[in-house]
Design brief:
five-stranded antiparallel β-sheet; two-stranded antiparallel ribbon; globular
Length: 70
Amino acid sequence: TVYASWNGATEVATWEVLAGRSTGSLRSVGSTERDGFETTVQTRSQESHVAVQARDPSRQVLGRSRVLVV
């Protein structure tokens, strides 16, 4: 389970979770529409490196979190 929020960013339409074995191998493992201030994204990935990207209604990337090792 990934929790995503971006204080003040009203243009976010979708949160996309990226995961991989390293920072350079991240790929999309799930996404969901933004749901209020904090959105929950369920994924089934077992990868060790995770990041989240915010996308606008036209699917353009607005920003990306730093990569976390979990």
